[in-house]
Design the sequence.
């Protein structure tokens, strides 16, 4: 392997011990290798355009690759894909798990049949909360352990209360934990300018991250954006991917 700038022979991470120069990959495209930061800086102007093209191509490959399930994932009990209709699933405040409505009612029927007297979560078996203070306690504990779903839901509560700055803080933290719905919520903040400035680039970045995570609404919004920009082919590709979740 040769340095793209000076032509010196470089080695991989494992070659360092036998005397070869350690290789450094370009952070943007992973195509070129350099023997030092000095050579990378010297070669930057010649490599910049190729790097941008390669990075955009790699990003598109990731963006249009359909994940195995939507951002909702599977019911943790029956392991079937959760429906996109939110009325057909229930979120448990104790563990923030989304459970399909069938498994939820099956759990209730089982407890009634066995005359247990007290309902519990079908997944984690924590007692079902009876008062708002118990629900808040569950939510707080989930947030303390960095549960992205609990953090994102806290952001939604702040958003509906008009506290956009806190909503942005919660959504950003959940997005850092790879929550696709949080990325989608951030795209709304950047579109509306609530709590942050209106920034098209950041809005699109979060829409793409949400779409990569299997969020169909984010995928649809990207399709609309591309069509409005006259990039019909890219828009249609987004719509096709979106339709696969229907």
Sequence:
């Amino acid at each position: 392997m040769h340095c793209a700038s000076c032509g010196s022979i470089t080695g991989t991470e494992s070659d360092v011990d036998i005397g070869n120069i350690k290789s450094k990959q370009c952070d943007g495209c992973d195509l070129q290798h350099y023997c030092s930061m000095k050579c990378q800086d010297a070669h930057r102007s010649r490599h910049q355009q190729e790097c941008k093209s390669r990075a955009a191509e790699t990003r598109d490959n990731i963006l249009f690759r359909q994940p195995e399930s939507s951002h909702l994932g599977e019911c943790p009990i029956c392991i079937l894909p959760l429906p996109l209709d939110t009325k057909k699933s229930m979120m448990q405040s104790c563990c923030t798990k989304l459970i399909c409505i069938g498994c939820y009612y099956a759990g209730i029927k089982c407890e009634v049949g066995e005359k247990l007297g007290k309902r519990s979560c079908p997944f984690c078996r924590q007692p079902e909360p009876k008062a708002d203070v118990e629900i808040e306690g569950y939510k707080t504990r989930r947030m303390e352990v960095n549960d992205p779903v609990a953090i994102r839901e806290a952001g939604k509560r702040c958003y509906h209360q008009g506290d956009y700055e806190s909503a942005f803080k919660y959504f950003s933290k959940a997005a850092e934990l790879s929550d696709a719905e949080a990325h989608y919520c951030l795209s709304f903040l950047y579109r509306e300018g609530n709590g942050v400035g209106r920034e098209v680039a950041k809005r699109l970045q979060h829409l793409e991250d949400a779409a990569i995570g299997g969020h169909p609404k984010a995928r649809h919004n990207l399709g609309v954006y591309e069509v409005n920009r006259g990039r019909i082919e890219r828009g249609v590709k987004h719509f096709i991917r979106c339709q696969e979740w229907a």
Residues 12-19 have pLDDT under 50 and may be disordered.
